[in-house]
Amino acid sequence: MDRKIIIGTRGSELALWQANFVKDSLEAIHISAELKIIKTQGDRILNLSFDKLEGKGFFTKELEEELIAGTIDIAVHSHKDLPTENPPGLIIAAVSEREDPAELLLILKDCTDVRQKLSVKFGGLVGTSSNRRKAQLLAVRPDLEIKDLRGNVPTRIGKLRDEKYDAIMLAKAGVSRLGINLDEFHVEELGATEFIPAPAQGVLAIQIRERDHILYEALQDLNHPDVAAELSVERNVLKLFGGGCHLPLGVYCRKDDDKYQVFTSKAEDGEGFPDRLFIESDTLEGLPETIVAKFAKDRKFPLKVFISRDISAGSYFRRALEKNKIEIEARSLIRTVRTITRFDSYILKNIDWVFFSSKNAVEYFFQLNPTFPKKVKFGVMGTGSEDMLRKNGHFADFVGESTDTADVAADFAAVANGTAILFPGADSPMRSIQQGLSAETKIIDLPVYETVLEENVEPTGADILVFTSPSNVEAYFVDNLLEPQQKVIAIGKSTGKKFDEMGVTYTLPFSPDEIGLAEAVFGI
User: Fold this and answer.
1) Secondary structure tally for the chain: helices H, strands E
2) pLDDT of residue 383
3) I need a labelling partner for 349 at 20 to 30 A (CA). Which of 168, 208, 283, 383 fits?
4) Which residues form the Tetrapyrrole biosynthesis uroporphyrinogen III synthase domain (predicted)?
5) Is pLDDT at 186 greater than 60 in this prediction?
6) Residue 490: helix, strand or coil by DSSP?
7) Which residues neighbour 455 within 8 Å (Cβ) at sequence distance 6 or greater?
8) Is 238:84 a contact under the CB 8 Å cutoff?
9) Strands 125-127 and 90-95, bridge-based pairing
């Protein structure tokens, strides 16, 4: 191109990084560019939370006005800040690669309590002005106090440093782009499938005038069509809900093994408990409409759900179901019994890792009051075991998040092969993780409990039956049959394998925890 391109941008440090990234990318394809800084409504009004600001696009409107007027040629936006409809005459010509859309919870070290989920002390004060973040935070930690937090990324971190909050939540993408050192804080990273991000989080949008065809063609060298396809799902869901930045909506779409996976969280407001949904599809066609239909106010939920374990009064799963007036029948069909009361602590002398395949393994192992002569690492199967490990004052260095134990075994082997590993567990373990380790790895099995099946198990008339282990499946179907109208959810592929053997169709949650279970029930 023979003309210099004028790039419009906000003046924050992050916005300037983004604009300079686009400027450098243009110059790499031999297009000269310069920046013009434009102040937006969102930059000027810092005393109100996002849901109190008027209209939509309060970080983008002024840039779009200058683009329409012709005083700039390109507007660079954080894609998540854009309204779902372009103003007449404007289009998104290109989108960037997606930075990791995870969230970061930055916590003052004096306010950190590893025994709590997310590691913020009980009753802690967390800063965020996002209703989406607020709803998801309170869903897992209802004890937290949430207070509005405005300003650019360095300003927000400065407010935490000044102890105006115990913790704050930020998008990982912004912190990564600015290269900010966070060593002074305890940092919890919340992945996009655990804590669902805003639609298009982590992506830059390059907006131009629709009639600027030559510039459009030039910008295709910077465009990522695969990202644009995934964002079309996220932003169309947002559009169908009629929402903007203030809507407590998280949507994340990704492609995994030739399938599209979409995770959605939606609450009525920042104080409301969010409904969550996980959908997997071979195609993107019709996905936004399918997702929105699941959240319809008049949809019919099952009347009753049975789950084969005890569920506490304040658990995520119970609150998620009771919000939708679903009755819960919770009873374990097995008992666990401790098999040892002490063990020789010498066994821990040369141990590098301790791996737990269940919450029971964690609980019974720490009842033995183990003393570690040196620092060891901990691995766990799933977030339930991770939470139990936290309650005993330890962090997990490895968390197996897949429902397929073979995948977890491969991931764990990548970090633990060749070390000495202790496996506290049941007296007859499946040894799925152990079998994935190399011959050079020293494996020590320590039976700390045994499983006993209950007898004469009563049937349930629930619409959905959730089975939490293969043993619970065995116990129930000794005396009972599945009714034609009943549907089954199985936690983990080992549990699902039991139903495969029985020829029973079942749903496998994306994650083997209470959030995953709630998503599975909501999706049926």
Assistant:
1) 17, 23
2) 85
3) 383
4) 318-506
5) yes
6) strand
7) 478
8) yes
9) unpaired
